[in-house]
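We treat protein structure as text, and this decision shapes the records that our systems exchange. The tokens are whole numbers drawn from a learned vocabulary of local backbone shapes. Below, we set out a record of this kind in full and without editing:
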Amino acid sequence: MTMTTTRRTLLIGATAGAITSGAGAARRASPAFRLQPWLALAAVPGASWAWLDGATVTAQAEGDARAGVPATPETLFEAASLSKPVLAAAVHALVGDGRIDLDAPVARHVDFTRDAATRAITPRHLLSHAGGLPNWRTDAGSDLVSRFAPGSAFRYSGEGFVLLGRLVEAVTGRTAAEVVRDRVLVPAGMTRSRYGWTAEQTPAVAWAHDADGELLPEAGPAHFEAQRAAGPRRPVETWTRSDQIAAAAALGKPPLPLFMTPNMAAGLWTTAGDYARFLRFARRYPAMDAPAVTVAGDLSWGLGWGLERSGGRRFAWHWGSNDGVANLFVLDLDRGTGLVVLTNGAGGQRVYARAARVGFAREFDALTWLQP
């Protein structure tokens, strides 16, 4: 496994709405750490990472996108569940337009369950993972049913965010991916980010690797391209729900969100620099920072991302994990500093946890909660 280091660095000024740091907060330089030794220890081929400081983004990449192909700051990584806060920001934009009511039942617009109690779920519940829905279903005959009264507890749910995407489509008449592109990706300056690419395109992408650093040949780009080839010959961002169901069926999969493309809960492809720009952009939606449901100890969930508040400090965070992929962001809500780490290896959790601790010079309860 080649471990070539890419030392190219990008410095990006404010282009899409700078945020205001906390009063009197000192500006911090980008952390001086290098991920290369940690990548080797964790058997992770490569990583893309970025540091946000107010209006400035510093982005770097180290290691390989795949054997013999160095990762660069422009290499696309699977965002995995870091896709969820991006969709959440689009939902908040539609709330601001008066097109989504955070406290109105989603079932008014989307007929998604036969269970009467589950039909009480609102966008507020889904954004905070308080709807009681499962993470993912794999049984074709299963229905979406809440485990508890919506709003009464925390239960992480990818299905809930896919349902949010369906709500976005119902109130706009467009695909959720198109709405996210226009309401978040473009205004945030996320010029590389997308939900996939056409057969005619050959973007630089990071390939997924297992815990030993070996290539997962049917994961990552190969998995996406197989799903894309099963559907209509147009960009996946324009695929309707019927297109998604037909493509899944062509691959012998049931019509469930886990098997559909694009997956609005986990299907974004991005760079660390782009995602840091998203963190800057998302500060215009303060509802994301307000605790809505308790997770454990000092951890809670806002309307779009996780929250950790301890020792007088407030942080937002989220992790992402697909096969052979592990990612994290941490954002200091008061100082306006943030770290994004994207990796293309199953051992990436060890890399991003070390980077977060060193970058912010502190321990995070969220990282302990995330331990397998």
